[in-house]
Design a protein that fits this description.
Blueprint lengths: L3 H10 L9 H12 L2 H13 L3 H29 L3 H8 L7 H34 L5 H13 L1 H20 L1 H31 L3 H9 L7 H15 L6 H7 L7 H29 L14 H9 L1 H32 L5 H20 L12 H28 L2 H8 L4 H26 L1 H20 L1
Helix pairs in contact: 2-9, 2-12, 2-13, 2-15, 3-11, 3-13, 4-5, 4-10, 4-11, 4-12, 4-13, 4-17, 4-18, 4-19, 5-6, 6-8, 6-15, 6-16, 6-17, 8-9, 8-15, 8-16, 9-13, 9-15, 10-13, 11-17, 11-19, 14-15, 15-16, 17-19
The structure holds tryptophan.
């Protein structure tokens, strides 16, 4: 039973788990979680694949209709309960409630996502050293370096090890002295580097205006249903939603700050960084007359070819930026897993971080060795983990989080954290009840191919009915 008094008592029981020292510290840490490889590596290349402006437009709508409400929902659940995702659902419903499975799914997602995320982050790290050494030789030679890195287990595992060690080191430091302190250093550095790169792209290359037109002039011909669904899926990933990362970060907040304002700030900064990264990258791509639709290789294969002419003073900051962004996201993924074992199992932070970090590291080795594939699937571990977590685990987690806050959580718990019961609150509740879950369900159903199957079933039934009626 979770009346306000119970919540209060348990809140005091969880005092020792740490808090953000400042509200700007929280904003930077949460923004750091959101801004990551998703913004700088994934967003530009999927935008390129789906033809630019139209995709950006749909993506912005998805952030507003699905991302922002869900971000607020997670922060509300977290701050209300002051608990990790598993504990949070139990506290708001009841001990042993089946809703805790949503929290469990989140902890599992954190484990899986960080395992392969760390491998990509390791590539970013490796490219800092490549950039310092300078990219040389023909375009083919530069592009093939990426293939060599990915297919060399020794190198991939080496950089994966360093990246995991960095995340573990920061998370051991705790909320204030680890995550908050490092976010306060890394995030401003990231903004500064990005701004520098975008100014370079806009003003020193000839590609600036083409990049702006590409990103902001909608051309719907390449979008399609596939593009719309990718935009929605990406809104999840880039805002760190669907696995309790924002529940966990929200749980370290003290009462008093305005959650609506915080959620808007985080989503806004995340979106701006993705767009600015897009401007910087496409300006260079168009300046050299390359194609925008380069898929996964856009950053690791196309850009280095351009960097050969531009020089290390742009390429080194670029990969440093990418690595910083990955670090502040990696620590949020690890923190979700660690917080569960600290809150619910009574482990010490150091032990939990070391043991779970090591577990994630070992799982990551499967993704780092590109020659290994998942039995019977024909897919490498890397693609398998990426597809499975982004396309299924996050949307399912997000869907149930949304249903929980909209239909199960008590109005009082919800409205108290929201801060009012005015039209804004009613609007949010309406979105979370009827619009957001339907949109998320559409993605899941599409992933499973259910729509097509149901469509044909429907047609058959219809024909059968016509025959029967006739
Ligand atoms: N949002 C990060 C990015 O864009 C990745 C990330 C960090 C994440 N924590 C998450 C994604 C939690 C989903 C859930 O790179």
């Amino acid at each position: 039973m979770s009346d306000a008094r119970d919540l209060q008592t348990t809140t005091t029981n969880t005092m020792g788990r740490g808090n953000w020292a400042t509200s700007i510290g929280f904003i930077l840490a949460a923004t750091g979680s959101a801004i990551g490889l998703g913004n700088i590596w994934k967003f530009p290349y999927i935008t390129g694949d789906y033809g630019g402006g139209a995709f950006v437009l749909v993506y912005l709508v998805c952030v507003l209709v699905v991302g922002l409400p869900l971000m607020l929902a997670e922060l509300i659940i977290g701050r209300r309960t002051q608990q990790n995702p598993v504990g949070a659902f139990q506290k708001l419903h009841r001990e042993g409630s089946p809703w805790q499975l949503v929290g469990w799914l989140g902890v599992a997602s954190g484990f899986v996502i960080l395992s392969y995320y760390s491998v990509v982050a390791g590539w970013a790290l490796a490219y800092i050293f490549k950039a310092i050494a300078g990219f040389q030789g023909t375009a083919e030679a530069i592009q093939s370096e990426f293939g060599e890195l990915v297919t060399s287990p020794g190198q991939s595992i080496f950089y994966h090890t360093i990246f995991m060690a960095i995340c573990i080191g920061i998370v051991i430091g705790g909320i204030k002295r680890g995550i908050e302190r490092w976010s306060k250093i890394l995030m401003p550095a990231l903004f500064a580097i990005l701004l520098g790169l975008a100014c370079y792209g806009l003003f020193s290359t000839e590609g600036g205006s083409k990049a702006l037109a590409f990103l902001f002039k909608p051309d719907f011909s390449k979008l399609g249903a596939e593009g719309v669904l990718s935009a929605l899926g990406h809104a999840f990933f880039t805002l760190s939603l669907g696995m309790g990362a924002m529940i966990t970060y929200g749980s370290y907040m003290k009462r008093g700050s305005n959650l609506v304002r915080d959620a808007i700030t985080i989503s806004f900064l995340d979106t701006v960084v993705a767009l600015v990264a897009g401007i910087a990258i496409f300006s260079m791509v168009f300046h050299f007359g390359m194609e925008p639709g380069q898929s996964v290789g856009l950053i690791f294969k196309t850009l280095p070819v351009l960097f050969k002419d531009i020089g290390p003073w742009i390429s080194v900051p670029f990969f440093v930026l990418l690595t910083f962004a990955a670090v502040t996201s990696g620590i949020s993924l690890l923190e979700v897993v660690v917080s569960y074992f600290v809150d619910r199992r009574g482990w010490s932070r150091i032990a939990a971080t070391l043991v779970l970090g090591a577990g994630i590291y070992v799982l990551g080795i499967f993704s780092a060795v590109s020659a290994w594939s998942v039995p019977f699937s024909g897919k490498g571990f890397f693609d398998f983990f990426d597809d499975f977590s982004t396309n299924y685990m996050l949307p399912i987690g997000g869907l149930f989080t949304c249903l929980f806050i909209a239909w199960v959580m008590k109005d009082k718990d919800r409205a108290d954290e929201f801060g009012s019961r005015g039209p804004l609150y009613k609007g949010l509740r309406f979105l979370l009840r009827y619009i957001t879950p339907v949109a998320v369900l559409a993605v899941i159903v599409h992933q499973l191919g259910i729509v097509e199957k149901c469509f044909w079933l429907f047609i058959r039934l219809f024909v059968f009915f016509l025959n029967y009626a006739g």
